[in-house]
Amino acid sequence: SNINRASNRAAANTPLAALVLGENSYLQYLSSGERINYSLTDAPNATLFLQGMPFEYFKRAKLANDFVRVPLAQTNLAFCFSNDNVLPMFLNIKVVALVVDGTYETKLVPRLNITSHQEMYLNN
By the 8 A CB rule, do 10 and 27 touch? Predict the structure, then answer.
């Protein structure tokens, strides 16, 4: 519908959409706050993480916040967190998913005609 297309166009002009599309995004990392070790991995490797065994991961970091573009092939992901701080931590986890619609269409773009124009004005 036209409403869905309009909302999709509006969502495409966000910093998160820029990240998903592989463009420059002005999302910022926090410079303060508690940092936690986390890994983004698949389910079998998450089991290895829980057992304290070496595991493979898609991304690993120690940050207060993060954002990452995940390839579509990575469908079943797991977040693994570990706290090496002395005090316990409270986590606020927010996951947002955007899917790029691979439907393309051809559009005609009108040719621009640029003409110069000069005007006189008073300089007081």
Answer: no
